[in-house]
Structure formats: structure tokens, C-alpha cells
Specification:
The protein is mainly alpha-helical and about 120 residues long. It has six helices and two strands; from the N terminus they run αβααααβα. α1 crosses α2 and α1 packs antiparallel against α6.
């Protein structure tokens, strides 16, 4: 069940970023494509992100964690590139749309994760 909730959160977060940020152009606007893109994004975050954080640990430490924003930017861009190979991705026109897209995905994910965790506590 946790996997499905995370998948849903990723889909909503990616939708928000794609819809709100000029300079991000989706290949497809249907929900099925977005579901596939969210799956790709989740897999990349599970496989690539930990390695990036390990390799850039000194930079993360030196910038007091701010370098994670650069990692988020890269992960957002990478999800678009990999998704494009499967016909469900998006293109990003430059660093700032990618940065803002990564920021929105992070913020929406944090808020929705907190809401869903809060909902689980009330059901027990």
C-alpha cells in the first residue's frame, strides 16, 4: 500500500511541476502517461539518488544541505529524459525550469506525505 501512495504522490507532484512551470513541455498530458512517468521518477529516486547523495556528501555538508536542491534539479531533469525514451517524459528548457520543477516536486511530495501520514494515524 505504501508503494501505491508514494506512486500517487509522485504523480501529483510531477503534474503540479509540469502544469505550473513555464519551460517544461510534456510529451503527453494524459494520466496514464503521468502514472508511468511517476513510476520512472520513483525508480530513479530509489536507485540513482542515494548514489548521488553518497558521491556528493562533502558538497552537501559544505553547503549545509543546499546542494540537495541541485540533486533534486538533476533528478527532475533525468526523469524527463528517461521518460522521453518511453514516450511519457517532458523536456526542460534550461536550468531554472528544472530547478523550479524539482523544488515544486519536493514541496508537493513533502506536504502530501505529511497529509497521508497524518491520515494513517487517525485511522488507527
Amino acid at each position: 500500500m505504501r508503494f501505491v501512495i508514494r506512486w500517487f504522490i509522485n504523480a501529483v507532484a510531477l503534474y503540479a511541476a509540469i502544469a505550473l512551470i513555464p519551460g517544461i513541455t510534456p510529451q503527453s498530458t494524459n494520466w496514464l502517461a503521468l502514472a508511468w512517468l511517476a513510476l520512472i521518477f520513483g525508480l530513479l529516486n530509489a536507485l540513482v539518488r542515494p548514489l548521488l547523495k553518497l558521491l556528493t556528501c562533502p558538497l552537501i555538508f559544505l553547503t549545509l544541505g543546499l546542494f540537495t536542491l541541485v540533486i533534486n534539479t538533476f533528478m527532475f531533469w533525468l526523469a524527463g529524459v528517461v521518460g522521453t525514451k518511453f514516450g511519457v517524459g517532458f523536456t526542460v528548457n534550461g536550468f531554472w525550469p528544472a530547478f523550479l520543477g524539482g523544488l515544486i516536486v519536493t514541496l508537493v511530495s513533502v506536504v502530501l506525505t505529511l497529509i497521508f501520514k497524518d491520515e494513517k494515524k487517525h485511522h488507527h
